[in-house]
Every structure is written in C-alpha cells, then in structure tokens.
Amino acid sequence: MRALAYDAFKAPIRVRELPDPSVPADGVVIQVAASGLCLSDWHGWQGHDPDIGKFPHVPGHELAGTIEAVGEDVRCWEAGDRVTLPFVCGCGSCSLCAAGNPQVCPSQFQPGFSGWGAFAERVAIRYADYNLVALPDDMSFETAALLGCRVVTAYRAIRQQGRVAPGEWLAIFGCGGVGLSAVMFGKALGAQIVAVDINPKALARATELGAEHAIRSIEQAKVAAQIRELSGGGVQLSLDALGSPAILKTAIACLAPRGRHVQVGLLPQACGQAPLPMSRIIAEELEILGSHGIAAAAYPEVFALIAAGKIDLNRLLAGRLSLDDAAQALMRMPEKRTPGIHVVCPMDGGFNAHDKLEPGVQRV
Asked: What is the spatial distance between Cα 343 and Cα 361, in angstroms, rounded to a whole number?
C-alpha cells in the first residue's frame, strides 16, 4: 500500500510503498477514504508522544472508510461497512470501559500513535466491536473524518465534562480545530460565547460560526478582565483548546464563582506543572476538569445535532489534500496554520458516491 511514513523523529516524511496491514483477530482492516490532518500528528513526528517508538511509523488518527477485512473474533461488523471511530480505542473489557469511559482505558489503542495510522491506503484497527461507529447513509467520508478527534473532543469537553447549559457564558481559548468545533457546539447548545485567539483570521472564523464576542489576545494579562466585563462578572465555563500555562491561568481567572474549566490542550512538558490558584479554587468552588477523546457510544448524540441542522461540519472543512501533498503539509503545520481542518484522501482523492464537493470548496 501507499502510505506516509518517517524513519525517525523529525526525519523527512515521504510517501512510500509499505506492506499491507495484517488483520487483528479482534479488529478490522479499513480502506481509508479520508483522514483529518491534526497538529497531534505533528507532535508525534517531533517525538512528543511516548507511544511512538517503532519505525517506520505511519501517522494519522482521524479516519473514515470502508471495512475491507474482518478478524476472526469480530462479531458486529463485516466487509463493506462504512465506519469511523474515536482516536482512542478502549479495550472493551476493563472496568473503565465497562463504566463507559474507554477514553481513559489503560490498554487503549490509538491509530497513528500506538500503531500505524490512517495516512495510508489501509489501516488496521484493534478492538473493533467496541469502538467502530457506523456512518449514517447520507454522511460523506470527509465529514466523518472531521469527527475523528477535534470535533468529538470539543463536544465531550463542553457537553459531557463542562456540562454547558443554555444561557451560560463560555470562553474558548484557541480557535483551531477543537476551538472552532467548540464554538459550533456551544452555539447549538445555547451558550453565549467569547472566542480568544491571537490570529485575526481564526477569530473571524469563530465569529462566523457563532461566537458573540472575539478577543485578540496580544496582551494576555488584560484578557481575563475583558471577559469578566463582557460576561458581567465571569463565565460559567472556560476551555483551553490550545495548551499553555499562560492560557490556563487566564482561563481560570475569567471564571465566575462555581465556574468550570476544561483543559483539552496539552501543556508542553518543558513547562513543568502549571501553578493553579488553589485558594481561589477552594473559596469559589471552581472545578478544573481534563477531557481526552470520547466514547464511541456518544457518537449518536453528535449525529443527532448534525441531522437536526444545528451543526454543519462542512463549515470546518478547510481543504482536501492528496497523499502526496500531505507530507509537506504535515511537516509545516505550525507555520502554516489555517482556520479549519484539512482532510487527506489516500485512495484516488478519497471521493466516491457519498462524497460531494461543497459549494466554494476546491480540491487541493
């Protein structure tokens, strides 16, 4: 099969011929139609993820496609099924998975990190019965690939962890894929949204997607005061979708009493442990929550919002990349960041009868 791969951290990423993946007994092989290009893949290439240790390595963890082969222990799926999956695949048999929390399973499988990923014509996925999600008939593979990491991560962060309620104020820090998705879900769930970013284009996109207020965070020290003034004393929920000690500090500072902060963005290991204002957290009964992925069982909630017309994921689609173009795009992600999400289409562009070009979106 053709795949993007690298032979060492920070080594060139190239398209090459690699052996087709074997079918796991508890898993499937999926012919990849589309896979989202995510900054986490860049971090993996840089050596920031301890799960990556064998080379050559194929990145890519936001995928959708068609099952090509099924393992002998799989009971719920067959060849030809159109599927997607969360980027964290729980084992399905431990106590955490039994409680509905596979996103923190200690034996989890992550394509693109603990195994070869989806920037390839085919990918092997373990724990298929517990993690695969059937696609609605009218959903394109590209739309489904957008769900793979950032969109569903944003949904879990503000809905399941953050418990956002209609009329509440929501401050979103970082308007990349997670942040813009959070804007869309926050709007659909009735929140009043303040978007914060240093990039004017990202803020403009956040406003288009439903944010009532946009703050350009050139001077981080002033942002919390601006948000508290806009919201009349502080927000009920804040989300750090980027990850930095300065943003974490600001996001907590803008909370109203009994407010909740959800941390999605990973803090650089070099910064050590970010200090938290524990006296204020105790006195005002603030909640500090982490959020990591989502369970496959939660996908119907997201599908329902899409079917009801409350969420239009195609508005997040920044463009389509061939497998040949994706290598340079991945290596240059931090310097070429654009609002929205690009998808990689490994198989002849990844288009089929279900995939339609949206108005105003061009093939890349």
From this structure: 12
Q: Give 160's DSSP letter.
A: I
Please tell me the pTM assigned to this model: 0.88
The conformation of residue 232, written as its DSSP 8-state character, comes to T
> Residue 7: beta bridge partners?
none
Cα dist from 59 to 23, 90, 107, 276, 359, whole Å: 18, 19, 20, 34, 30
Q: How far apart are CA 148 and CA 293, in angstroms?
A: 9
**Could you tell me how many residues make up the chain?**
364
CB 90 within 8 A of CB 144: no
User: How big is the CA angle at 117 (ends 113 and 120), to the nearest 5 degrees?
Assistant: 155
344 beta partners: 35, 321
pLDDT digits (tens, 9 = 90+) for 152-211: 999 999 999 999 999 999 999 999 889 999 999 999 999 999 999 999 999 999 999 999
Question: What is the distance between the alpha carbons of residues 203 and 211, in angstroms, rounded to a whole number?
Answer: 9
Contact, 251 vs 226, CB < 8 A? no
